[in-house]
Amino acid sequence: MKRKLVILGAGESGIGAALLGKAKGYEVFVSDAGSIKEQYLKELQDNGIEFESGKHTTEKALQADLVVKSPGIPEKAELIQKLRANGNLIISEIEFAAQFTNAKLIGITGTNGKTTTAMLTYHILKTGGFNVGLAGNVGTSFARQVLTENFDWYVLELSSFQLDDSYELKLEIGVLLNITPDHLDRYDNDFQKYIASKMRIFHLVHLGRHAVYWQDDTQIGEGIAKATYGLNAHPFSLSGDAAEITYIQNDRLFYVPNGIEVSAPRADISIKGLHNALNAAAAGNAALVAGVSPEALLEALKTFKGAEHRLEPVRELDGVEYINDSKATNLDSVKYALDAFDSPIVWIAGGVDKGNEYSLVNQLVQDKVKALICLGKDNSKLITSFENLVPTVKSTDDLIQAVRWAKELAEPGDVVLLSPACASFDLFQNYVDRGKQFKKAVLDL
């Protein structure tokens, strides 16, 4: 009897899991409550995999020996509640794929900076000659790569939702960047539950292997000793007040894992801003622990190209820099973005508010933002929060209009920054769609 594998969600991770499951002898059924993209439909049909779209058939799901769930499906969903009550095992695509590879795994999580840090870690390992793949929340799914590639190492970007549904993932190195309130709607509006979810990464690291974390983060600091018990700790910090800590000082980054000191001028790091220096501290730490040479690390820091939609330079026009930071869907990301520039900023923000407490960035906005363009269907909260702090505030639900206004308001030496602080679903499919439309509008100026 073949074991029954039910996959909920037919995006890249779901299809990857379906193909891997089929190859490993499971009877696979894919179910998506929405529509399935053309390319994925074709793959399911070509591989003779049974599927449904536009609904979830509860009876079929309840027959599963194993359920792989898309990270986008909340725990509160009725079907998930029924599966839990029925005793079905629900795991992430990451957990599922990890059973079928002997590669060493580096897992990276945090509220902000995951994508950049994962891409940078991958770039450093590749520069160092490692046979390495990049997966998780970024690029081709882990399951698909396990099926089609033969890598010795993987760098995995892991969201809290992926961690929640992983139990026996054996990480060689776990990296935790920071924890600030986000996705609280998925955690009963309880910040402690979200913190616990992020800290889970260290429970998934092999005993005796490695934990990399930001020592200055108060949410991490509280439970870190307990979470990393039995692991080799490699903290990074903004100050070098103890041995064995990677730290930033006098515009240099000092790496000190395993007692070897390697230092890099911050000016040599291709991605700018203090938050990116911290991302580089985390990525370099993990890479050195994995065995990359100091020479390869220093070379890679200079040659890295940042993540798309994360403080991504679009163009310079008439002495004005245009920056796409569409991935900044929470206030903490925006704080980092505003902090990264010394020039006056024309800030484009707005969308679906996630319960933001805008007063947290008042000082930064007052110091740096010369004009705010609110882009969303309902901009009232943004306008009320900043109309007394910013000389010029405009409001629209038209991206092209927003970009034209930004061009009129910006002077040579200024920065036009799309950093929304909000989700994108009022006007766009997702943050990628928003970022792409912004880039097109800027390039069309």
From TrEMBL:
It comes from the Bacteria. One of its GO terms (molecular function) is tetrahydrofolylpolyglutamate synthase activity. Pathway: Cell wall biogenesis; peptidoglycan biosynthesis. It is found in: Cytoplasm. Its EC number is 6.3.2.9. One of its GO terms (cellular component) is cytoplasm. PROSITE patterns: FOLYLPOLYGLU_SYNT_1. Residues 309-422 form the Mur ligase C-terminal domain. It catalyses: UDP-N-acetyl-alpha-D-muramoyl-L-alanine + D-glutamate + ATP = UDP-N-acetyl-alpha-D-muramoyl-L-alanyl-D-glutamate + ADP + phosphate + H(+). ATP binds at G110, T111, N112, G113, K114, T115, T116. GO terms for biological process: cell division; cell wall organization; peptidoglycan biosynthetic process; regulation of cell shape. Residues 108-286 form the Mur ligase central domain. Keywords: ATP-binding, Cell cycle, Cell division, Cell shape, Cell wall biogenesis/degradation, Cytoplasm, Ligase, Nucleotide-binding, Peptidoglycan synthesis. Cell wall formation. Catalyzes the addition of glutamate to the nucleotide precursor UDP-N-acetylmuramoyl-L-alanine (UMA). Belongs to the MurCDEF family. This is UDP-N-acetylmuramoylalanine--D-glutamate ligase. It comes from Roseivirga spongicola. The gene is murD.
